[in-house]
Structures are given as structure tokens and as C-alpha cells.
Design a protein that fits this description.
The protein is of the alpha+beta class. The protein is about 60% helix and about 10% strand. Strands 2-4-5-7-6 form a five-stranded mixed beta sheet, with helices on one face. The protein has a two-stranded antiparallel ribbon with strand order 1-3. The longest helix is centred in the middle third of the chain and has 82 residues. It is rod-shaped, with a radius of gyration of 38 Å.
């Protein structure tokens, strides 16, 4: 298989009229500056100085340079020299571009100085100061080439280098923007994948609870659990595309989940929720609290022969929101606080939660699972404080 390497086309100008306008404006500006320098240099002379006429005479050479400079810019855009910075450009394409610029650089002084010599001869002829013959024109052009050929080569190199630098800068910005968009899309895909892993883990446990109630012939509790499960399913579908939701929505999910678990544990499960009303509008990652509560039920209260208690609390600490789920179970397993450890018996939900927080807040959030001071375990998530759109408008 043969790979064909092509030089990518330069991006089209958004305003095609802008480049000629800038060239003409630059020519006028340089003519004014040069005329002002001559005017101040001859200020001590008593003769009358016609500044507009001087500028008009100086404008022609600068317009010639602007015209040919536009041609250099076009050649630079059409035959860009690349250095393998991520573009698919073969050696032959670069050699072709280099050859074009070498030939153009050699011809640029000839064209520029020949046009300048023609201008000088035409101006002399109009003034009646002689000139106007081909031999005189050739002699003038030869003199100018001998004096300014190297200068014009340097002008060509500067214009071509400036055009290349501007193109490379545009491409670098576009490449950085593409990379940023790629990182965002990867992070979004990662979040969605992790959330999809969380939901089956939670739903299967909820359905097992309903099945247990049905087998125990507890019809009213089973009906209520099914209603709670239906509510959870609706919440799951409703928030399928949301990255952050109000804390109140998370609490509603937790209450439905805990109602199902209380139907299973009966009086063995005691619940305390301490979340001030002013925090209900805080923005939190979707499905944040449920895996923390599920972990406390499964690996905390679920391991106790006696009644157990789960406490859910939220506090605002300056520009941070602190969420905690505490249980009075046997506490985390040894080594569970390590970043690579499997927390509280291997719950996949908490491992995914850590990854979600890292992807969503880029290191600005933290999560810790530790032993409680009075026994049990405390799962604590600290998030940057953000208000949901509805909360911010109130």
C-alpha cells in the first residue's frame, strides 16, 4: 500500500478584503514616516518644502513593495514549509515548497527593483529630466540591483517567516482547542461509563430486596418497595444525561433507597438525615449519595447482629460542600483508606465514585473513607460549592 503525502491547504481568510487593505495602509504609513523624516532633516533649509508631494512620490515604492509582499504572503500560504509537527506532509511536498520559495526569493529583488527603476524613469521623464530609454532603464535597474539585492532578499525572508509564524500560531491554537475538546469528550464519556456501572449495581440490590419481601409474603411492604423502586427508576431515566443535580434530588433518591432497605431490615435500621434546607439547591454529582449509603448498609449495618444506625449530614464550609455518611458498623477493612484499596469489602460503587469525582472536578474534590471516632465508618466527600441554576436565580 502506498501512502500519499500532501501539503494541507492553509485556512481560508475570513475577510479576503482585509489583507489588501492592510498592505495599502502599511504602504501609506511608511511613506508618511519617511516623508516626515526627510522634512525634519531639511527643516534648516530656507526653501519651501511640499510635504504632500513628497509623500506621493515616496508612496509608489512602498506600494510596489506592498504589492509584491502580498504575492509573498500568497506563496507562503500556498506552499507552506512544515516540520513534521503532527501534519501528514511528505519530504517531496516540503522540498517542493522550499524550491518555490528559493526561486521566488531570487526573483523578488529583480521584480521589485525593476518596477522601482521604471517608476524612477517615468518620474524623470515627466519632469523633463531625461531618461525614458530602455538602455537608461536597464542601467538604473542594474544599479539598484547591485545596491539593494541583498536587502530585498532579507525583506522576502522576513515576510515569508512572518506568514509561516502566523500560520503555525493559528494551527497551534486550533490544535490546542481540538485537544481540549477531546479531553472534555473523553471525560464526559468516562463519567457516563462509570455512572452506567453504578446503576446496575444499585438496581439489582433493590430488586433483590423486593424479591425477598415477596417471598416473605409481606404484600404491603412489597407494594411500597415496588413503588419506591419505580420512583428510583424514573429518577434514573430522568437524570441520565445530567452531570450535576440539586442535593435535594439526591436526598430523594436516598430516601427511596433507604425505605426499601428498612423494609428488609425492619427495626434493625435507624436513619438520621441532617441537611439544612438552604443546602438543598447545592449542585452535586448525580448519584453521589446512593453508593455511599448503600455501602454503609451493606458493609456496616448489614454485618451487625444488633440494630444499626446511619447518619447522613451536609455542611457548607466556606466555598466547599461537605457531605458525610456515617454508620456504627464494624468499620472499614484494614487498608481500605489506601487509594488502590477496595473499600468496605470491595464495593465497586465507591471505587467508581472516586474516579467520577476526579474526572468531574479535576482534583478539586476529595473523598475519604475512614474509621469513625466512636466506631463504625465515615464516608466524607468534599466538593467545590456550586449552586444549581434554579438556586442561583432565587
Amino acid at each position: 500500500m502506498t501512502l500519499t503525502h500532501v501539503t494541507p491547504a492553509a485556512p481560508a481568510l475570513r475577510r479576503p478584503w482585509l489583507a489588501p487593505l492592510l498592505l495599502i495602509g502599511g504602504a501609506i504609513l511608511f511613506a508618511l514616516v519617511e516623508g516626515a523624516e526627510i522634512r525634519f532633516a531639511d527643516a534648516h533649509r530656507p526653501r519651501r518644502f511640499d510635504f504632500p508631494r513628497m509623500v506621493a512620490e515616496l508612496l509608489a515604492p512602498w506600494l510596489i513593495l506592498a504589492l509584491l509582499g502580498g504575492g509573498i504572503a500568497w506563496l507562503s500560504r500556498r506552499f507552506m514549509i512544515y516540520r513534521g509537527d503532527g501534519r501528514v506532509v511528505g519530504r517531496s511536498a516540503n522540498l517542493c515548497a522550499i524550491a518555490v520559495h528559493v526561486v521566488a526569493a531570487a526573483l523578488f529583488p529583480v521584480a521589485s527593483l525593476t518596477l522601482l527603476a521604471t517608476w524612477h524613469e517615468a518620474r524623470a521623464a515627466l519632469r523633463g529630466a531625461g531618461g525614458g530609454s530602455w538602455s537608461h532603464l536597464a542601467a538604473t535597474a542594474r544599479d539598484l540591483l547591485g545596491e539593494y539585492y541583498v536587502v530585498d532578499l532579507a525583506i522576502y525572508a522576513l515576510i515569508a517567516a512572518a506568514c509561516h509564524a502566523a500560520a503555525f500560531l493559528r494551527e497551534a491554537r486550533a490544535r490546542a482547542q481540538r485537544e481540549l475538546e477531546l479531553e472534555r469528550s473523553i471525560a464526559q464519556a468516562r463519567l457516563e461509563a462509570l455512572r452506567q456501572q453504578l446503576r446496575p449495581h444499585f438496581l439489582f440490590n433493590a430488586m433483590n430486596t423486593v424479591a425477598m419481601l415477596v417471598r416473605a409474603n409481606e404484600r404491603d411492604a412489597a407494594v411500597d418497595a415496588l413503588a419506591r423502586l419505580a420512583s428510583l427508576l424514573r429518577a434514573s431515566l430522568r437524570e441520565s444525561a445530567a452531570r450535576e443535580v440539586p442535593l435535594a434530588d439526591e436526598l430523594a433518591i436516598v430516601r427511596d433507597y433507604l425505605a426499601i432497605e428498612q423494609a428488609r431490615f425492619g427495626g434493625r435500621l435507624q436513619i438520621s438525615i441532617d441537611v439544612p434546607g438552604e443546602l438543598h439547591g447545592a449542585a452535586v454529582p448525580a448519584w453521589l449519595l446512593q453508593p455511599l449509603v448503600e455501602n454503609a448498609v451493606r458493609h456496616g449495618v448489614g454485618r451487625l447482629a444488633r440494630p444499626g444506625r446511619i447518619e447522613i449530614a451536609a455542611r457548607r464550609r466556606a466555598d466547599a460542600l461537605e457531605l458525610s455518611v456515617r454508620d456504627d458498623g464494624p468499620g472499614p477493612d484494614r487498608g481500605a483508606a489506601a487509594p488502590d484499596a477496595r473499600p468496605r469489602g470491595g464495593g465497586v460503587g465507591l471505587a467508581n465514585l472516586r474516579a467520577r469525582l476526579d474526572a468531574l472536578y479535576a482534583g478539586a474534590a476529595s473523598f475519604e473513607l475512614a474509621a469513625g471516632a466512636a466506631g463504625g465508618a465515615v464516608a466524607c466527600a468534599i466538593l467545590p460549592w456550586r449552586a444549581t441554576a434554579a438556586e442561583a436565580q432565587t
